Amino acid sequence: MKDNSRTIKAEFHCHTVCSPDSSNQLRPLIHTAHERGLSRLAITDHNKIGCALKAKEIDPELIVVGEEILTTGGELLAYYLSEEIPARLSPMETIERLKKQGAFIAVPHPFDIRRHGWKMDVLLEILPHVDALEVFNARCLRGGLNDRALAFAQEKGMRMQAGSDAHSLVELGLAMVELPAFDNPDELRAALEAGQISGRLLSPWDHLKASASIAFGKVISRK
């Protein structure tokens, strides 16, 4: 029996080669996650779950099958999926399809308009239907965007989470949440109530290293 009273470290926002802008191969990604002390790794590729499902087969306890879904209003993160959700549906249709799967739903980088953030009126409309807000994203170029997300989540009494948004191994674990162990959406909802967020922004130098890693990884993957 798994001990869900223990405290673990979780990464809630990570991409693989199934995302067109990521170089993360599955086995090195899983190995690096363990090296960095992660006990849960949510793979959230852009509008795809294929690599997340494959990673789950490799390491069932570590991997949470997720997806970062582009809607007509902004992006959503979802966890514990069995079926892929297509891009560019309306926010509420996307949410309805996710709820039919019993998924946990979060809003990533909500105010980063450069990366499919949300207009306030649309965000307020979906807020009662989502489980959490990402209040720290390591890829935000301006820390103030995370500060604004944190203040908004606190004002609205929302659960809060963080993620590195890793597109390369350099980034994995830059932002994480320490919380009680969880194995399903309901346990995750409860665990986040006691979650402690830590993280740092990806530095400009690391942005360059990450971009180089992604470019090199894509060249290698095409050979």
UniProtKB/TrEMBL annotation:
Residues 10-73 form the Polymerase/histidinol phosphatase N-terminal domain. SMART domains: POLIIIAc. It comes from the Bacteria. InterPro entries: PHP_dom, PHP_domain, Pol/His_phosphatase_N, Pol/histidinol_Pase-like. Signal peptide: none annotated. GO terms for molecular function: 5'-3' DNA exonuclease activity; 5'-3' RNA exonuclease activity. This is Polymerase/histidinol phosphatase N-terminal domain-containing protein. It comes from Pelolinea submarina.
